[in-house]
Specification:
alpha+beta; 6-stranded mixed beta sheet; about 375 residues; 4 domains
């Protein structure tokens, strides 16, 4: 026997939205947190004139829950507000269209950082943060750009020349057609720039902007569609236009206490700024830091020591050296002569001081 079910069942009393979601569901936490945070900065951007807008708290709730379950598309979120009971609960059965969701996200992106800080503060007040033990890690996030659109200066110059040639052809053709139509119609028909020319011109502007950035930042390659994305190596050795996502997590309840997205592939350069992010968000420095070997450098160890942070970071150089596979020497292999102001290499050859090398965002090398 089967249990009877009737999809046309009617109820004498309407169901409560609250009954759609289990008591222990994460959506309830999102709902309570967004109801508690101060969103004055977002609300102040709305006008009292015109038709009522969707409440920013509603939009924040469905966006954050979408991020949590890996639904990022505005169209997919719109669909879920009519098909998924959790989204229905968070949106109070309202169904904002994808353009509203997308516009809200892009307009108030900067405010999300302030809301993030408030959420972490709430977690702190609820006793969800520990005594300062934090884990730091990075992950490559693929950019919304094709690797085929990553070009060097030579390829950009070639494409610029090709597009300019095509624009000249379109202009010549347009002038010829204009003359013929002027003779035929006189002044009775207004003319618009040909669509082909508009598209080519926009493409040329985009490529020239990419070339300028490539020259200014002394890069080898740059992506035409996303100038900020850099070619990064992913697991498996594949190289794609990407960003490096940095996340710091508190040890007690796995609360994210700092996050950032950078265009630098190397995690080693992110330790210092991420510690400062944590400090700014929590109002205090972490006491213990756990990180993988990608964050190991002597500069980073010095920084952590100065700030009184105990760190547990594997030394990859030592591992390689112990296996006998290292082709390089460590600083400890060189002996410094203070009187002569020089080093001696492991072969006993003197290495005198020659110059100071300036390094961007890092201590100078002597």
């Amino acid at each position: 026997m089967f249990k009877k079910y009737d999809q046309n069942q009617q109820f004498l009393l309407p169901l409560s939205l609250d009954s759609f979601v289990p008591e222990d569901h994460i959506a309830r936490i999102i709902n309570d947190i967004i109801n508690a945070v101060d969103i004055t900065a977002i609300e102040s951007t709305y006008s009292e004139n015109g038709s009522p807008a969707y409440h920013p708290r509603l939009l924040l709730k469905i966006l954050l829950y979408g991020y949590l379950i890996d639904i990022r598309s505005s169209r997919d979120i719109q669909k879920m507000t009519s098909t998924d009971t959790v989204f229905m609960y968070l949106a109070a059965m309202q169904q904002p269209n994808f353009r509203t969701i997308c516009r809200f996200r892009s307009t108030h992106l900067d405010s999300f950082k302030e809301i993030f800080a408030q959420v972490v503060t709430l977690c702190k007040e609820l006793g969800m943060l520990g005594d300062g033990k934090v884990s730091l890690d990075g992950t490559k996030v693929k950019a919304n750009a094709s690797v085929r659109q990553s070009k060097d200066e030579k390829a950009l110059d070639k494409e610029i020349a090709k597009i300019r040639e095509e624009i000249d052809k379109i202009l010549d053709e347009s002038i010829r057609i204009d003359k013929e139509e002027d003779e035929k119609y006189g002044d009775s028909t207004p003319y618009e720039m040909p669509k082909e020319l508009v598209n080519k011109t926009k493409r040329l502007e985009k490529i020239e902007a990419a070339k300028k950035k490539l020259e200014e930042e002394n890069l080898t390659k740059i992506n035409v569609n996303d100038n900020d994305a850099k070619i990064m190596k992913h697991k498996g050795g594949n190289k794609k236009p990407s960003y490096n996502g940095q996340v710091a997590v508190d040890d007690k309840e796995q609360v994210i206490v700092a996050a950032d997205l950078v265009d630098d592939e190397n995690d080693v350069h992110q330790l210092n700024p991420m510690i400062l992010h944590i400090w700014a968000t929590l109002g205090r420095k972490p006491t213990i830091l756990l990180a993988d070997a990608g964050y190991f450098s002597y500069d980073n160890l010095e920084f952590l020591k100065r700030n009184g942070i105990d760190a547990y970071i594997p030394d990859n150089f030592l591992k390689v050296e112990e296996r006998g596979k290292s082709k390089w020497f460590r600083k400890s292999n060189f002996k410094f002569d203070e009187e002569k102001d020089c080093y001696y290499c492991p072969a006993g050859i003197m290495m005198p001081f020659t110059r100071i090398q300036k390094r961007k965002d890092k201590p100078d090398l002597r």
